[in-house]
Amino acid sequence: MFHRVTFRSLLLLALCAALVHGEEKPIEETNSSLPLKKAERCTVDKCQLPNCRCSGLRLPSAEFQGREKEIPQLITITFDDAVNVINYEQYQQLFQGLVNPDNCTASGTFYVSHEYTDYTLVNALYQQGHEIALHSITHGSGTDYWREADVEQIMAEFGQQIEMLEQFAKVNRRHIRGMRLPFLQIAGNNSFEAAKRLDLLYDSSWPTQRYRNPAMWPYTLDYRSVQDCQIGPCPQASIPGFWVNPMVSWVDTQGYSCAMIDACIFPPKDDVDALFQWMLENFKRHYEGNRAPFGMYLHAAWFQRGRHNFEAFRKFLLHVNKLPDVYLTTASRVIHYMKHPTLGRPFHSCPKKPRTTCVKQNCALRKVETGEMRYMNVCDSCPTVYPWLGNPLGTTAY
Ligand SMILES: *[C@@H]1O[C@H](CO)[C@@H](O)[C@H](O)[C@H]1NC(C)=O
Ligand SMILES: *[C@@H]1O[C@H](CO)[C@@H](O)[C@H](O)[C@H]1NC(C)=O
Ligand SMILES: *[C@@H]1O[C@H](CO)[C@@H](O)[C@H](O)[C@H]1NC(C)=O
Ligand SMILES: [Zn+2]
User: Fold this and answer.
1) 182 and 230 fall within a common domain
2) Based on the domain organization, do 249 and 369 belong to the same domain?
């Protein structure tokens, strides 16, 4: 599913960790005291696939020039925040019966935050072939928290969340490849340095308005990014081999940009056809243009906000799912494609669905920080207290 070298080095690390006698060492190889290099201007001769790509509008391969109609159109459907029993049912209905032209099942990406998440449902999404990705433990108190976070803080929020997902949802950490910051608030170099040190592959928090027509493709941070900085500070350091999956904005009915569908200020009226046509217009900028991946970014709460939002969304998915060259896939598969771009069929094989066993436990736990009670469904066995930043496995009361 992922690039072979990465997989092998991870395997090697896992083996080393095992040799060190069960020490649950997080996968980090870089040193915090190493200064970052300033990112230089990108040139194609210095920056080549599979592990380097300049930012911008260039097609994934020079050979694609003039053959845009043969580039497979990838669509990423992503949802942020807690997974619970209400939105889980919506996700089931949304993806029901959708099969890509290569006969692999359609899948989405879930940027999960910890609080109120039902980990047994995360496990179910994972086993269905969806991507489970990171959206932090605390979700923070606002944009200041994330803008000012240092590398250690960001590593704690996301690194400890990996431990939670492993422990409570039985997600293999090798399958956790990406993150999205709460409020899309990046912290300059720090977010990306932290992500890289956690051995993640990509971030998908950075919106672009300037590069929506034609649309921007994913790229790496080896060299300076040309992407417009909408919610700064943006990184200036070189973060080799780390991918940015830019959030290419949609346009609302008044011409304003929105990074996420549910953030549009002037959406169409609450009517299935008006919503459907609007989605189609946004889609066509990609599909009839350079075929850069088309992102559908939202929160499940949007389905409650308008009576016809869900129906319109589903209608749109059924429509694009009939097109012979459109693939509904995960963000990490998009990066995989970017590393090995091809015309026509984008992937050699279907992603293997993970098989895990998850015996549901309903746990009533005290949140040490506030004294509140929280109910939490997890796989296999309950923690002692409500897990939180600093105590991700909820092992001891103090
Ligand atoms: C990592 O950083 C520490 C200081 O924090 C230093 O003593 C050590 O030599 C560094 N290791 C490497 C491999 O750079
Ligand atoms: C990011 O890192 C680069 C390279 O070390 C440095 O020049 C720049 O000042 C850093 N930016 C911030 C906001 O720390
Ligand atoms: C997908 O399945 C259909 C029906 O089972 C078959 O006709 C078609 O050739 C398959 N396509 C691919 C790409 O395997
Ligand atoms: Zn969020």
Assistant:
1) yes
2) no
Same domain, 109 and 23: yes
Here the tokens at position 233 are 């500070």
pLDDT of residue 242: 98
The ligand with the least distance to the CA atom of 101 is 3
Quote the ligand 4 centre to 183 CA distance (angstroms). 6
Rounded to the nearest angstrom, the distance between the alpha carbon of 35 and the centre of ligand 2 is: 9
Provide the b/e sequence for 274-309 (b: ≥16 CB within 10 Å).
ebbebbeebbebbbeebbbbbbbbbbbebbeebebb
CA atoms within 13 A on the CB side of 316: 23
* pLDDT tens digits along 145-192: 999 999 999 999 999 999 999 999 999 999 999 999 999 999 999 999
Nearest protein Cα to ligand 2, atom 14: 189
- The confidence score (pLDDT) of residue 397 equals 61
Residues framing ligand 1 (Cβ under 6 A): 31, 33
Confidence bin at 203 (pLDDT 50/70/90): very high
Q: Measuring from atom 1 of ligand 1, which residue has the nearest CA?
A: 31
In whole angstroms, give the CA distance from residue 5 to residue 374. Answer: 41
